[in-house]
Amino acid sequence: MMLQASASVIIALLMGILGVGFVLWQLRRVLSYDQGNETMRNIASAIQEGASAFLSREYRVLAIFVVIVATVITTFLQWQTALCFIVGACASAGAGYLGMYVAVRANVRTAAAASIGLHEGLRVAFGSGAIMGMSVVSFSLIGMTVLYLVFSGSPSQLTYITGFGFGASSIALFARVGGGIYTKAADVGADLVGKVEQGIPEDDPRNPAVIADNVGDNVGDVAGMGADLFESYSGSIIAAATLGAAIGQNTTAAFIGLPFLVAAVGIISSLFGIFMVIGEEADVAHSNIFTSHDLVIRSIRFLRKYVAVIDENATLEELLAALRRSVWGASVVILVLSLLAVLLSGVHFNYWLVILVGLIAGNGIAYATEYFTSYTEKPTLGIANATQTGAATTIIQGLAVGMMSTVLPVLMVAVAILLSIWLGYKAEGTMAAGLYAVALSGVGMLSTLGVTLATDAYGPVADNAGGIAEMSHLPKEVRLRTDALDSLGNTTAATGKGFAIGSAVLTALALLAAYVTAAKIDDLNILGPTMLPGILIGAMMPYLFSALTMMAVGKAAHEIVLEVRRQFREIPGLMEGTGQPDYKACVGISTESALREMIFPGALAVVVPLVVGHVLGKEALAGLLVGTMSSGFLLAVMMANAGGAWDNAKKWIETGQYGGKGSDAHKAAVVGDTVGDPFKDTSGPSLNILIKLMTIVSLVFATSFGSGWLNF
Amino acid sequence: MMLQASASVIIALLMGILGVGFVLWQLRRVLSYDQGNETMRNIASAIQEGASAFLSREYRVLAIFVVIVATVITTFLQWQTALCFIVGACASAGAGYLGMYVAVRANVRTAAAASIGLHEGLRVAFGSGAIMGMSVVSFSLIGMTVLYLVFSGSPSQLTYITGFGFGASSIALFARVGGGIYTKAADVGADLVGKVEQGIPEDDPRNPAVIADNVGDNVGDVAGMGADLFESYSGSIIAAATLGAAIGQNTTAAFIGLPFLVAAVGIISSLFGIFMVIGEEADVAHSNIFTSHDLVIRSIRFLRKYVAVIDENATLEELLAALRRSVWGASVVILVLSLLAVLLSGVHFNYWLVILVGLIAGNGIAYATEYFTSYTEKPTLGIANATQTGAATTIIQGLAVGMMSTVLPVLMVAVAILLSIWLGYKAEGTMAAGLYAVALSGVGMLSTLGVTLATDAYGPVADNAGGIAEMSHLPKEVRLRTDALDSLGNTTAATGKGFAIGSAVLTALALLAAYVTAAKIDDLNILGPTMLPGILIGAMMPYLFSALTMMAVGKAAHEIVLEVRRQFREIPGLMEGTGQPDYKACVGISTESALREMIFPGALAVVVPLVVGHVLGKEALAGLLVGTMSSGFLLAVMMANAGGAWDNAKKWIETGQYGGKGSDAHKAAVVGDTVGDPFKDTSGPSLNILIKLMTIVSLVFATSFGSGWLNF
């Protein structure tokens, strides 16, 4: 039995629709929770206004960008690709909007639910994350499958759909780079004047930048992370389908369909994992979606007995274990279902192993990240220890830890690539199959994205909930609960970053292979005339990009500082709590400066591949992409992990170690944490976008590149 | 007319002997200077003892290492390569020994000469640097040419000589990595206890680590830099000759001979440049080497009128201009003479342009480095400005400047590679010629090494002279003069580092091409099965290596701190100046810990290429080398320039800006400088060695690698 490509695509479409159904049901559920007292609702609505101000401003700029690029694509390529580009951009923007919409409403509800209990708070916050996670995978899958079906029959069907990936990348650029600048500018700006100059605590409502800071958490970790992974998810499926079409065996249709099928069963697995955290038996039993699926309900019930034991006195480890089990549970389900998918597709059994390899690598990177950034482990404790001899040794130790932390992720990705290629090669006897296997491995890694992203996007909701609890002076035990939820979110955020960069590399590699196929490059000799210059320039790009984004944070934060100082100076009674700060002004400045500062680095990511491809030729462009991918991977992991480790070293000291808060060690740790902020939340994650965007631009314009001006 | 390869080699040998003649003459001249008063002589002899203690200890470890590796080479390859390996190690060690020998004797003479005047001090210190510079090029050239002649007639003649490069690399590993750890461990250790805990000034004779610190300057910047460039110089010539033999045209002999010929005329050019700084007309006229060369004397006299105007009131810019003119002068001479060499060799005119490209790229990188690290320019001033908002912004700004500073060097190297390949390709119509041209471009870049290294190795002598002036309480104007000389040395050290990394990349690339030829690799497809894993692992190596070396500095410095504290505690009257500190104990600890800490990173550099070559195959090894080269280049430039910029930002503040010494801005700048120390003096420069050593190991063992275990 062998499934046709279109059958797989239709299954994927149906699963996407199922995912949307879940999203709508969950949305109703989350929004039905209590919003707390009036103070809480006021603060929440300020954050909501700020978020919507940012989004509407960003989407206006985006709309212009999308129109321009769509025009360029229509002019130089074809309208179908431009259409896919627009659909991709809208799908990603839609998922991001929905995620943000619910996140800035779930925060206050989480704070209110935390008044009842820890588990209740977790369920609201995680439910919000689940909406983001499932929106990303569903919108992406529906968008791609519908376009696939619309253009079915056309020989360029898959070529057009690369435009969808480009559209997704464009949104990711704005959300991740612009959002990254926004969140850190607001954070640093609020801290510099509030904590340092005025001596008021974090999340104090008197601070005019406090709302911008809270909006920033959502902008960076919900919308930014979501768009980043939307791009990886779409890119890996597109690349796999494109490379599947190039294998050129009688099973081609099955190869094209398989990535869609794996994504489709991934949605089921993710839903399973999500229910392990949020689902009450009652919910499951009464949900009209599931009423007729007794088997599903029974198996969820059976498993939940062993997994969903989150009680009021749960420690951080227990909460973490609960989230982790949901990801594991989803992984077990996907392994069973993807075996089914492989068998149904009628392709070689090796491809199931390939999916397994991707899943293991993804989880392996996440755990390695956790090891290097958690304050229960040696690396971060080493940084904490170094704070005793001052800021300089703290920085040196943190950088060394960040550099050291690249070893395991690189080895895991390298081994995953190697094994995938080998398995694919052994299955069909061609390198084309090997490259297809790499892409499929990326699809496998991302197949449970619905639930992994949920664990990640839950973090800023918990963080915001803590802020709201603080600002509205809720009882201490509520704040303790939101703090526990927040700590958990910090850990999942760190592992999420590791996962995001790992998947970005696999996706970029798959897209690169698709580019080489599409550009019809025969000779990719690493010592070819233009290859090494290409690689070197490519390796330089992440450094340039990081330098620009770090400086951008500095500039934007400076503007916030000036505005906050102005308000403290000019608004009477602000410090005494009688005057009302102008939150909107700070939100506006963060928004404007973030969008302005991202233009140059963003333009570089789009323009450099085009220039290199035309001037130095398509081989040099392949070199450029390899250089950017390898150098960017290393730099991104280094920055993200150094940042995470500094953050947690500071948190460790704040638990009372080495003199606790206010000690010299703490001051040194704060320096480390401040350096780490743009590392882990702006420059590091932005490199994921750089890597993928440069590659997808090259793929979309692949046919337009020649042999370059030097004419060897 | 066409020169035979052996004729070119003989000319190179003769020029090498001429260089040795200069070294001996200059040695007599420098040593004939006055050594100052008894205090000065005592301090100097403590430094001399410390240096010789370090060298003899290092050379003992080295001897064991060399014997082991030579045995391995004899067992798995052939005895001839092992012999060349030993000769290469001895030649590099000899040049390093001579350079150190004179540097630790010129320091006190420079201090004494500075009592007479600025120019007098410069001449002594620069004379010492010139001995290092000319020893490196002469010893390298004599060693290679003698081996070439000894093995002439053997078809594996050039293969054997790769062993010479490996020997040079081994010394460079010990000198650069071990020396880099030594110098910063002593520096940081001395500062932490002396300046911070005891509150005594820099270079205070009561500090037990002060001699180790002064020894360290020589170990790092004389022996370390010398061995690094000895390796690049030898490697580029070996690679060019090897690739020249592979072009396979009727001009093969000329291609092999040309790099030797360029190096030969480079010695003349370097001597010319050196005389522009140190030569009195009387010296030139009476020197028995030159008496019969009226033309040389006249042209030097003519040029000196325009160049050697260094008066007592010379500013830093004027001193810098004097040194710069000497490098320029040498460049002009090499361009004329290398044109002659190209014409004599009978090869295409394009090869002269290739040499020109290399020279321009080398100087271009040096100037770009200067721009990013000098406190008269915007980038460093930006860091100085960031010190006002604290240590964190100082670090962020410095890292951003370091990252930004990679752009120009990368573009210059990329363009140099591209143009060289293109010129070579156009000349012969084959890519083999293109790769030969890249190697030749590296030879061109390094052809004036005799003088560029002189400007560099002069720095630590001036630095030491300042320390001696301080410790022996010389009059203030002497200290001002040595400070001026020292500042100049800091600038040339920064540009020297840029030059060293640029040449390391070109050399490594040339060696890589030679490896690919030697390993008989046909298919180097960048999407080949093992290539990308190789590239990723390769890109990770510099991060691992840097993490290890940074941590090594921390550990070694910690041991020094404990010893210095012990001495202050246990030696009666030490703080009052009546007790005698045990300098040797600190020198011993620095030596032992540096040599111990370098073992693991050093072993990695040798073992990883062998493991990857055998397990993943020779193609993956090529990928590994490309990954290490590109990622290492970026990281090295970033670290070196960030370190240099932080250092100079601190110096700028110490001139009285932003509150001057002791202000909060200064404290933040000190944090930056301390982070920068291991960046610019240990980890950054060590990457040059990593890049070249991994490549030369691969080249030497090229024939032993197969297709790996996975068997595609």
Features:
homodimer, mainly alpha, 712 residues
**Structural shape of chain A:** globular
Largest interface: A-B, 79 and 78 residues
Query: What's the helix-strand series of chain A?
Result: HHHHHHHHHHHHHHHHHHHHHH
Beta fraction of chain A: under 5%
Report, as a whole number of angstroms, the end-to-end distance of chain A. 50 Å
State the helix count of chain A.
22
Poorly predicted runs of 5 or more residues of chain A: 281-292
Q: What's the assembly state of these chains? A: homodimer
Protein structure class of chain A: mainly alpha
Q: How many domains of chain A?
A: 1
Please tell me the overall pLDDT of chain A: 88
Calculate Rg of chain A over CA atoms: 24 Å
Number of E strands of chain A: 0
> Helix amount of chain A, in percent?
over 70%
What about the largest sheet of chain A?
none
Secondary structure: elements and pairs:
2 copies of one chain form a homodimer.
Chain A: H1 5-31, H2 38-76, H3 79-114, H4 118-150, H5 157-198, H6 210-247, H7 252-278, H8 281-286, H9 294-307, H10 316-345, H11 350-373, H12 378-386, H13 391-404, H14 407-428, H15 431-446, H16 449-471, H17 476-518, H18 531-570, H19 583-597, H20 599-615, H21 618-654, H22 664-700
Helix pairs in contact in A: 1-4, 1-7, 2-3, 2-6, 2-19, 3-4, 3-5, 3-6, 3-16, 3-17, 4-5, 4-6, 4-7, 4-16, 5-6, 5-18, 5-19, 5-22, 6-7, 6-15, 6-16, 6-17, 6-19, 6-22, 7-9, 7-10, 7-15, 7-16, 10-11, 10-17, 11-14, 11-15, 11-17, 12-13, 12-21, 13-21, 13-22, 14-15, 15-17, 16-17, ...
